[in-house]
From TrEMBL:
Belongs to the bacterial solute-binding protein 5 family. Its main location: periplasm. InterPro entries: Peptide/Ni-bd, SBP_5, SBP_5_dom, TAT_signal. It comes from Rhodovulum viride. Gene3D superfamilies: Dipeptide-binding Protein, Domain 3, Periplasmic binding protein-like II. Signal peptide: none annotated. It is found in: Periplasm. CDD domains: PBP2_NikA_DppA_OppA_like_17. Residues 108-450 form the Solute-binding protein family domain. Pfam families: SBP_bac_5. This is ABC transporter substrate-binding protein.
Length: 536
């Protein structure tokens, strides 16, 4: 079974350039072209053009300072436990994965030389030779076996445990070959292995006060909740990159302060800007914006196991109280699209276009709340700048509620500690979910009965069984049908209200070059440090 592009487009040109920067060999590039039906002579021309594009632009040297929007004293260098953007940025800089997703969403090779299967259940992973960890140790199959098995160890507390459980056998065939057996066929495995949690560690790693990876940067400084500094890895295995000598990454939780730091030149990259800042950014000639629409969203979570989520009709009423069009136009400044209360956005090929969002109907909401005996009752809604645009979204819903006599008490709490103290815990609160490349990953992380991030504590045996069936199906028509049904179940049964899919906007100094969109989210899927450079 192969997982290659089936035609050639401008996006594929970008993918070839990306593969070259990733260190792909000429043989790998030619295989990519041949699998797309490109003739040898045409392929040579494409490679020459792509090589010239890559060679013409990067500049080596310099230090980049970048700011994300959230950090915590629980920040970690353990990829298995990564949960915030700051964690993902460090993971991408200090470690590598077996595969990565290119700009077109195709799984390409990173530490793996190849990943092959005949039945989508038993897979063979060939590793690249000559790759070394920062401490000089050579990468072997034993490191991959150890890294993947950690996700199956309950004592580790891996955020990807529910996804990794399908790997029932992970073993080394020889020093550079790993055999992965799945409980059932899953054609998504190469894509799954590109997730940030599946970074490869050296066998036996237990100390995460420092990072010993194979990545483009050495971990110079790691201060949880404060900052991280990476310096260029002089023994990096890829032919190209990194271009920066070093980078510093930290969080500025206040949106205005983050923008001001960019405009003043204190930082060169400001991640996930609030839409309210876009007009200011557009008015400044020395800064530019990078827009990625890949399925990021902020959701209003109502726990089904706690009041008021246990009250019949409360969630349905809230669905009709959300003015989605106003949220997209006013809160997001048009940088988003209307959501339909399930996590698979229109950017994904399995998105169900027939599933319509609940209509904004305050009168209907009032009738439902009145019938449930909730009108006049004060309902606490927890919001924070840590969950992008949640404060503004909460205000829109609060105002709509006030007009019908529904009292929504919006409590704005600090970003620091929000994810550990309120997210998943408060009865009614906001979350913010980064893009994931497949429905299986989204549903496994967020909606399966044993999902680690089950925001509304949704549980359905039927949903769980459909998840397993879709994962193992090689019939694309049936798989699509199942995923459409599951989206409808989430939209009508779960307590996660998703009013919009948000376009992520990163602000950059005009000197920062090389940043591209990525299906895994903003800041080039959090991997910006390896691929950007500073123009002189």
């Amino acid at each position: 079974m192969t997982f290659k592009p089936t035609n050639w487009t401008g996006r594929d040109d970008a993918a070839v350039e990306h593969a070259i920067r990733r260190g792909a060999s000429r043989r790998e590039l030619l295989k990519m072209l041949m699998a797309s039906g490109v003739a040898a002579t045409a392929g040579s021309s494409i490679l020459l053009r792509a090589g010239a594009a890559v060679a013409a632009t990067p500049v080596t040297g310099g230090t980049l300072r970048a700011a994300g929007w959230s950090a915590s004293t629980a920040d970690t260098l353990d990829p298995a436990k990564a949960s915030l953007s700051t964690d993902y940025v460090r993971c991408c800089a200090f470690y590598n994965r077996l595969t990565f997703l290119d700009e077109a969403g195709q799984a390409q090779m990173e530490l793996a030389e190849s990943i092959e299967t005949d039945d989508a259940r038993v897979w063979q992973v060939k590793l690249k030779s000559g790759v070394t960890f920062h401490d000089g140790k050579t990468l072997t199959a034993a490191d991959v076996v150890y890294s993947l098995n950690r996700h199956l160890d309950d004592s580790v507390g891996s955020k990807a445990n529910s996804i990794a459980k399908q790997m029932t056998g992970i073993s080394a065939v020889d020093d550079l070959t790993v055999r992965i057996e799945l409980a059932a066929p899953n054609a998504d495995l190469p894509t799954i292995l590109s997730l940030h949690h599946f970074m490869i560690l050296a066998e036996g790693t237990t100390d995460f006060t420092k990072a010993n990876g194979t990545g483009a940067f050495l971990c110079e400084v790691f201060e949880p909740g404060v900052r991280s500094i990476g310096t260029k890895n002089p023994n990096y295995f890829k032919a190209e990159g990194p271009y920066l000598d070093s980078f510093e990454f930290f969080a500025i939780s206040d949106d205005s302060a983050r923008v001001n730091a960019l405009l003043s030149g204190d930082i060169q990259l400001a991640a996930q800007l609030n839409p309210r800042s876009i007009r200011l950014i557009d008015s400044q000639p020395h800064v530019v914006k990078s827009v990625t629409t890949a399925g990021n969203y902020t959701d209003l979570n109502i726990r089904l196991d706690m009041d008021p989520g246990t009250k019949a009709g409360f969630i349905e009423g809230m669905r009709h109280l959300i003015n989605r069009e106003q949220i997209v136009k006013a809160v997001l400044r048009g940088l988003g699209e209307i959501g339909n209360d399930q996590p698979v956005s229109s950017a994904n090929r399995y998105h169900n276009p027939n599933l319509k969002p609940a209509e904004f109907d305050p009168d209907k909401a009032k009738h439902i709340f009145d019938k449930a005996g909730l009108l006049g009752t004060s309902i606490l809604v927890v919001a924070s700048d840590a969950a992008m645009s949640s404060v503004d979204m909460a205000t829109v819903v609060q105002q709509a509620g006030a007009e019908i006599g529904m009292k929504l008490d919006v409590q704005r709490v600090p970003s620091d500690g929000y994810w550990s103290n309120y997210w998943l815990k408060a009865p009614v609160h906001f979350g913010n979910i980064n893009p994931r490349p497949t429905p299986d990953i989204l549903f496994s992380l967020l909606y399966a009965s044993d999902a680690p991030w089950n925001e509304s504590h949704y549980a359905s045996e039927k949903f769980d069984s459909l998840l397993v069936e879709a994962r193992g199906s090689l019939d694309e028509e049936r798989r699509t049908e199942i995923y459409w049904d599951m989206q409808e179940m989430v939209a009508t049964q779960a307590g996660t209200l998703i009013p919009a899919y948000i376009s992520n906007v990163d602000g950059l100094s005009e000197k920062v070059k090389g940043l591209r969109p990525n299906p895994l989210g903003g800041m080039m899927g959090y991997a910006f440090a390896e691929y950007v450079w500073l123009d002189a």
